[in-house]
Aurora kinase
Amino acid sequence: MIQAKGGQAPSQARHPLSVVMSQIPDAAFETEEQHVGEVKQQSTVVASHVASHVAPQMARAKGSQHLSLARHSLSVALSATSNAIEERAVQLIKQPVPKIFHLGMFEIGRPLGKGKFGRVYLARERETGFVCALKVLHKDEIQQGKIEKQVAREIEIQSNLRHPNILRLYGHFHDRKRIFLILEYAGKGELYKHLQKADRFPGWKAAQYIAQMASALRYLHHKHVIHRDIKPEDILVGLHGELKMSDFGWSVHAPSGRRLTKCGTLDYLPPEMVDPKRCEKPYDEKVDLWSLGVLMYEFLVGQAPFEDTPVMTQRRIAKGDMTIPSFVSSEAKDLIRKVSSS
Ligand code: ATP
Ligand code: MG
């Protein structure tokens, strides 16, 4: 296990993660079961705390208070035992200066995955043993990729969301070169891999998953957030098999509900976003409902309905040109068609 020393301020961090990672043994954090047990216990405790202490605080929070309250919520989340946690949560919320995070506070575990810009590691907060996922983004890569706004938006939006099917962002910190996102650990990895392994999901499972995604979307839309990039690659699976919507890089606040920017992945985009004739028309939360229909199709069939060459995908989306195989139940077919035309 890595023993990165703690205590230094972020700007003076003496533990570049590359050095830390190179020392990691194969079994980074004891056994998988131990993790599972820990996270299970903590997530229950955290959930009740968020509900009873943090959520009401968050609801009252405005403007810059959001960030400090997000930190408070992590402080709560990181509390150790179930009996002491109530008292500690109250103490933490009352603290005049919120907890500031830095790399030395975390024990770094095995790599969980690599994205276009980020690397994600299993991590554990030293003081409390709270298990999380630490996403590391390099500032120069963010600048080169011109995604500064996207990252800022992802942090701002995701840290204010509280829903069992939305991956929590507990907080963030940075040093001279990197930005670190403290994320909820999704113990069962990517949904995409589960789908590949299964070929397609049975109706009962697809129904459960779609209900979870619909619930997450209802919550998002209620908060006037449009996700705009819902696809199996960006959905993670929690320890209890529950879905966790993640990757809010393309999401936007939609106070007016009127957006013109093109974004997301072609396969999941609705006609109003791919059809040049309709492009000048604004779109709203409904774009996520279209993606929900595409997702439902993909869960039941094993591939997205408009998978083709990019030009053909665009044409087929605009025309709504899809064939639903006969093994899909008539009820599911009906729902896919209704969601797509809503
Ligand atoms: P992109 O940068 O193209 O959006 P991505 O969404 O896959 O790609 P990341 O969010 O950086 O990129 O995640 C990389 C991988 O790490 C994921 O595909 C997933 O396998 C794993 N991962 C990310 N976050 C977590 C998490 N909270 N819990 C468990 N695994 C995670
Ligand atoms: Mg992603």
Remarks:
- The two ends are 52 Å apart (CA to CA).
- The chain has three domains: 26-92, 100-183, 191-340.
- Residues 100-183 form a domain with the Phosphorylase Kinase; domain 1 fold (CATH 3.30.200.20).
- Residues 115, 234, 247 surround magnesium ion (ligand 2) (CB under 6 Å).
